[in-house]
Amino acid sequence: VLEGVRLSGAGTAIKTLQGGNSCRSPTSFYGRFRHFLDIIDPRTLFVTESRLKEAVQLLEDYKHGTLPPGVTNKELWGAQKIKQAIIHPDTNETIFMPFRMSGIVCPNWWLNQSHNACVNYANRNATKPSPTSKFIQGYLGAVISAVSIAVGLNVLVQRANKFTPATRLLIQRFVPFPAVASANICNVVLMRHTELEEGIDVLDSNGNIVGSSRIAAKHALLETALTRVVLPMPILVLPPIIMSILEKTSLLRSRPRMILPVQSLVCLAAFGLALPLAISLFPQMSEIETSRLEPEIAMATTSKTVVYNKGL
């Protein structure tokens, strides 16, 4: 049984696809990893509008028990993959193509952090409307702070003349991780600060909205921020280790011109691994005990736990 496969947005129960492989269960890290490999599949960027409508209709037919004869589990999973990669789970609206998780590639700091800001906004918890002015404020704050942190740390190290060359080189290699991680955290928090102010909807086991919780919003942003800390780890750690080994091989020693393309492929592979690993740390629909939320939330339901969309 494939558990926990969300077939529609907020306010609906979590459904299951029967008779398939159990490797995509959101209750396990591996299940979430397999799930998010589907979500970031770049092929979903080229799905046509008609194909998307077919996928959504197929899932609706499944939910209402009106599937046409001959539909296989593979077709259902394919439809599920398309919908979850393109449709926002709260609003049921199509996410603009460059800002989907499957479109996360940018060339420089400003464009990168601008792109991150739009990705964070597009994949936020959208149970509450957000005015354009809030988006602009969040975007400017997120991009300016993120770029300032990243560039500032690198400039600070380059001007640290009192360090020995060896120490400076070591610090320069270390700085990119805290720079990228702290910039990513700022980006997430500032782009989604409205959730902290207004709270996010929490749902009971039947998918009914219990209320709006600021505490759940804090948990959602904390979990998302932690994924942004983990995200650069494989990208910044794995390529230097792998290249230090490959550069000692006879192939690259005799063909030094191949070092750059090989390093590019290694970095690309590390990035492809890093994204699903990071966003698989927590399920998108996270669970929290009602006793940890606001008193009015706890009194509004008999459920011991509620769920909320933490965003991606």
TrEMBL record:
InterPro entries the record matches: Mtc (IPR004686)
TM region(s), chain numbering: 138-157, 169-190, 229-246, 258-282
Report the principal subcellular site: mitochondrion
- Which is one Gene Ontology cellular component term of this protein? mitochondrial inner membrane
Report which superkingdom the organism of origin falls in: Eukaryota
Question: Which keywords does this Swiss-Prot/TrEMBL entry list?
Answer: Amino-acid transport, Membrane, Mitochondrion, Transmembrane, Transmembrane helix, Transport
Q: Does the keyword Transport apply?
A: yes
Its topology with respect to the membrane?
A: Multi-pass membrane protein
Query: Which Pfam families does the entry mention?
Result: SFXNs (PF03820)
A biological-process GO annotation: mitochondrial transmembrane transport
Which molecular function GO terms apply here? citrate transmembrane transporter activity; monoatomic ion transmembrane transporter activity
Per UniProt, subcellular location reads as: Mitochondrion membrane
Which family does the record assign?
A: Belongs to the sideroflexin family.
Q: What is this protein called?
A: Sideroflexin 5
Taxonomic placement: Eukaryota, Metazoa, Chordata, Craniata, Vertebrata
